[in-house]
Amino acid sequence: MIDLRTEFAGLHLKNPLIVSSSGLTGSVEKNERLELAGAGAIVLKSLFEEQIMLKAEQTNEQAYIPEGGNFLTEHIHEKDLSDYLKLIQESKKNCSIPIIASINCCTDTEWIEFVRKIEQAGADALELNILSIQASPYYECGEFEKNHISILKNVKSKIRIPVIVKLGTHLTNPVSLINKLRAQGAEGIVLFNRLYQTDIDIKKLEYISGEVLSSPSDLTASLRWIGISSATVSNIDYAASGGVHSAEAAIKSILVGASAVELCSVIYKTGSQCIRPMLKTIENWMTEKGFENISQFKGLMRAKDVNCANMYERTQFLRYFSERE
């Protein structure tokens, strides 16, 4: 009997396929359908710090008196939070799989008080989606990483549920940051977040959005860094995100050390009915290889010698291109 159960960030999952934070998980009805489709866990659509702050600023500009602006700003905060708390409560009520709340943030501000209410609403865990680009000429090296640690430290001081940090790709040394996040109490790491894709309309001379959905080739970054990080910082759980479009991609992610994977683009492209065939393919592969459970092959192909990881990557790069004509 094949056992697909896994543990990620202290959560017991019936299988390693998590639906990531997106419009796919923005309503109770959608979350119920995702569970029926076979999902192992759900990360709710993010509560966006910047969106709340922007709406508050716009309201203040429209207010005639400071007192009125302050009142409306507080109302917006409470309304957005109330809606989100209701999504958590209703999803927990109607779904039996773990429900992970998500906050998309870039600063350490008053919004952090929201996390206590998120825990009280019943979320099984909280994913911190820390996303921003550092482009100031006065930026001091390491400030971005310190911001991650500061946010996590403050969140951990307010809640007891597991905290998962979803990282972007713009990091000099993910391993070092992951080690520091683990020291501050992070239970899980997701690699990697997908940035807004910038493009240009050359006819209108306007900035436009590039391809929103990921492609299978995006998986390579997660495979590289989970493989290296899980070998170096082993006492924390990892999940792969970005480019997981097939059962094969999920298997590869587990082989390099991931406990789970986050699905998004593949569901947008093919629908949630893709989940059960992916699970079946994983089961068939495990049967073929003689594995009875996830732990038997998890990390089997993580980096063997992390001190030589850079040389290995450079050697393989040179070998690949020297053989191409």
From TrEMBL:
Enzyme class, spelled out: oxidoreductase
Metabolic or biological pathway: Pyrimidine metabolism; UMP biosynthesis via de novo pathway
Alphabetized UniProt keyword annotations: Flavoprotein, FMN, Oxidoreductase, Pyrimidine biosynthesis
GO function terms (MF aspect): dihydroorotate dehydrogenase activity; dihydropyrimidine dehydrogenase (NAD+) activity; NADP binding; uracil binding
Domain Dihydroorotate dehydrogenase catalytic: 4-286
Entry's Gene Ontology BP terms: 'de novo' UMP biosynthetic process; thymine catabolic process; uracil catabolic process
EC number(s) recorded for this UniProt protein: 1.3.1.1
Annotated InterPro entries: Aldolase_TIM (IPR013785), Dihydroorotate_DH_1_2 (IPR012135), Dihydroorotate_DH_cat (IPR005720)
Names of required cofactors: FMN
Pfam families: DHO_dh
Assigned GO CC terms: cytoplasm
Catalytic activity of the protein: 5,6-dihydrothymine + NAD(+) = thymine + NADH + H(+); 5,6-dihydrouracil + NAD(+) = uracil + NADH + H(+)
Known function: Involved in pyrimidine base degradation. Catalyzes physiologically the reduction of uracil to 5,6-dihydrouracil (DHU) by using NADH as a specific cosubstrate. It also catalyzes the reverse reaction and the reduction of thymine to 5,6-dihydrothymine (DHT).
Subunit and partners: Heterotetramer of 2 PreA and 2 PreT subunits.
NCBIfam families: PRK07565.1
Name the record gives this protein: dihydrouracil dehydrogenase (NAD(+))
Organism from which the protein derives: Bacteroides luti
